[in-house]
Design brief:
By secondary structure, this protein is of the alpha/beta class. It has one domain: Rossmann fold, CATH 3.40.50. Helices cover 38% and strands 24% of the residues. The protein has an 8-stranded mixed β-sheet with strand order 3-2-1-4-5-8-6-7. The N and C termini lie far apart (33 Å).
């Protein structure tokens, strides 16, 4: 692989937990809880049935599997061998059709299959790579003209430090300590700039909130901590 935009320590961190990916009461419980919210938001904007979807940084395949069950033909890519094996095993056990997994970077995938996907998702991944803008460019290359690109990540401000690191990792124990590095968090304006430079048009954005008392997540307009952005790649003129 020629383009390795990955932090070995980050890969090791998620590889060590890979066997617990599909346990809804494990360290990955937040992913299981937010997955229906983000899946429904995506599905409201684009009908997944019959589409070719790419899930960048798919990990154990929670979103990839769910999109396949909505009728998409899904390719999940990641650089964690262990996580991909877990994803493949789950697809076999759950008898999920229409999903496949590859160990390849987004950048290399973009070289191999430009403009090949109707939908590209990259969720909770940008804050874990050395060069997020490179991933954004790759996603923009991979999506077809007129297609959709979805990102989710964490804002960088004092509130997100308090909620996503101090609260989630040290007080509520929602995530393993050290899951996130505050310096790698990405402001919506920064993601918007990288996406604009990659030729994507912003369609909409949503924030995600969590109530530790009810242990419930929901979407609203507050993007101060967790947020998602939906982009379109302009259709070709005359296409």
């Amino acid at each position: 692989m020629s383009n390795i935009n990955a932090d070995p320590a980050e890969l090791a961190k998620f590889s060590d937990l890979a066997h617990r990916w599909w346990d809804p009461e494990s360290e990955f419980r937040p992913l299981h809880q937010i997955n229906p919210l983000r899946l429904d938001w995506i599905a409201k904007l684009v009908s997944l049935s019959g589409t070719h979807a790419l899930d960048v940084g798919c990990g154990g395949g929670i979103l990839s599997d769910a999109m396949a069950r909505r009728g998409a033909q899904v390719t999940g890519i990641d650089l964690s061998t262990k996580a991909l094996k877990v994803a493949q095993l789950h697809a076999l056990e759950a008898q999920t059709v229409g999903v496949q997994y590859r160990e390849i970077s987004a950048e290399d995938m973009a070289l191999q299959q430009p403009a090949s996907f109707d939908v590209v998702t990259c969720m909770e991944m940008l804050e874990h790579v050395p060069d997020p803008a490179s991933v954004v460019r790759a996603c923009a290359t991979l999506v077809k003209p007129g297609g959709w690109v979805f990102f989710s990540t964490l804002n960088r401000n004092p509130k997100s430090f308090l909620f996503a690191i101090v609260g989630a990792e040290y007080i509520l124990n929602l995530l393993p300590k050290g899951t996130h590095e505050f310096a790698k968090f990405i402001r919506p304006s920064e993601l918007a700039q990288a996406s604009r430079q990659a030729g994507l048009d912003l369609h909409s954005q949503r924030g995600m909130q969590y109530n530790p008392l009810t242990r419930r997540y929901w979407l609203n307009g507050d993007t101060s901590v967790n947020y998602m952005m939906a982009y379109r790649k302009p259709a070709e003129v005359g296409g």
